[in-house]
Inverse folding.
């Protein structure tokens, strides 16, 4: 059963009580991420995520690790462009321990300067590792090509010159501006009743400041741009895509199905032609990301350099003939795939907790699974084709690539685009 409570200080508490399981997944979500960084703060949201694990008023970093290991649980965090989540998964009997750890990390972190200096080295190594993974790097390049000069176009990890200038004062200033009650969502799924959850958190974040409305710069997408990073790799790693839907767009459910049809599984149009029919790639897929006021849709493929022209030709031709390719059978298969994978994901308490939090952040309410399934079933072939035609119009494709790409006439890309 789903529950939602708005606390007097603006903190939102959402939960799903499942008495037949022995575990709980508890998340503390702040609606802030790398998008909220000033230019000189690039990477700070992610750095703070690291630093709260380095010691609190009651727990050292080692204490936190040992307490969670003794529970047999899992304590972690992740940073996105518009949100940061701190979460724990434990047995229901260890719920108080999870609550106490998360509260200490977020309300009473120490941020000692010597720990900041050590963690700067750790994050720089993480940044180096990301640079060495071209299949990940190309996604950052695609965002940069799509939104140059905007925070959404920057990678989440940051840059060496900014990371090395972080100190305690910068951390506290960022948290004061962004870790505010209006941006805080407590989400829990599992064997904990909602009333107990509210009771535990009703007073724990009283010291969190109240948010102040700040105007945002809406990103203006640079359509048709190309960004290439030369690397001596065996494959070319390619992302091709367009701006897409914001996170609360009513057509999002249509986008889910379009994504499945284009590259969302082994029966998708691109996987079948690029891999199964032509043998050009090992890995290819499509994906989408949605933000407060914009979004993206992208296609990824990894392949040998000599196959570049053919891969691009397949991608652009598939996008140009979606009106013919999306039959009733194709749409029904996409609906079955989406509904099935969504329902299967609900076997995980962590997935349920994440769904609760994202529904609250995206829509301001709990969207039930039955409601989502009904919305998917109502989507028509005409709606999917209409959205495809709205997204993939002529000369709209933005491209990013990593690999052995010297002497390629990228100026000819316009000849390959949808017409």
């Amino acid at each position: 059963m789903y529950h939602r409570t708005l606390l007097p200080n603006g903190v939102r508490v959402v939960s799903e009580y499942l008495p037949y399981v022995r575990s709980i997944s508890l998340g503390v979500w702040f609606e802030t991420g790398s998008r909220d960084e000033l230019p000189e703060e690039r990477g700070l949201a992610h750095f703070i995520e690291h630093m709260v694990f380095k010691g609190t008023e009651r727990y050292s970093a080692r204490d936190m690790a040992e307490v969670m290991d003794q529970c047999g649980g899992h304590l972690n965090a992740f940073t996105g462009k518009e949100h940061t989540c701190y979460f724990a998964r434990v047995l229901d009997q260890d719920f108080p321990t999870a609550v106490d750890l998360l509260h200490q990390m977020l309300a009473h972190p120490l941020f000692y300067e010597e720990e900041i200096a050590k963690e700067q080295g750790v994050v720089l190594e993480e940044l180096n590792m990301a640079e060495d993974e071209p299949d990940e790097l190309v996604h950052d390049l695609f965002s940069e090509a799509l939104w140059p000069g905007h925070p959404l176009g920057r990678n989440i990890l940051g840059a060496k010159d900014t990371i090395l200038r972080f100190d305690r004062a910068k951390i506290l200033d960022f948290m004061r501006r962004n870790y505010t009650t209006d941006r805080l969502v407590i989400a829990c799924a599992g064997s904990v009743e909602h009333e107990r959850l509210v009771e535990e958190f009703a007073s724990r974040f009283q010291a969190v400041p109240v948010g102040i409305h700040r105007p945002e710069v809406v990103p203006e997408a640079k359509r048709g741009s190309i960004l290439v990073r030369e690397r001596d790799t065996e494959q070319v790693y390619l992302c091709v895509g367009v701006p897409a839907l914001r996170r609360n767009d009513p057509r999002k459910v249509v986008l889910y199905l379009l994504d499945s049809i284009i590259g969302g599984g082994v029966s998708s149009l691109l996987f079948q032609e690029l891999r199964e029919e032509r043998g050009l790639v090992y890995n290819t897929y499509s994906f989408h990301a949605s933000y407060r006021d914009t979004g993206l849709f992208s296609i990824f493929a990894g392949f040998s350099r000599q196959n570049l022209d053919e891969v691009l030709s397949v991608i652009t031709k598939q996008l140009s003939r979606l009106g013919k390719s999306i039959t009733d059978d194709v749409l029904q298969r996409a609906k079955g795939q989406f509904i099935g994978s969504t329902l299967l994901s609900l076997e995980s308490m962590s997935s349920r907790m994440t769904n609760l939090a994202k529904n609250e952040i995206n829509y301001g309410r709990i969207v039930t699974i039955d409601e989502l399934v009904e919305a998917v079933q109502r989507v028509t072939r005409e709606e999917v084709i209409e959205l495809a035609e709205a997204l993939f119009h002529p000369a709209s494709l933005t491209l990013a690539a990593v690999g052995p790409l010297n002497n390629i006439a990228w100026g000819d890309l316009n000849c390959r685009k949808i017409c």
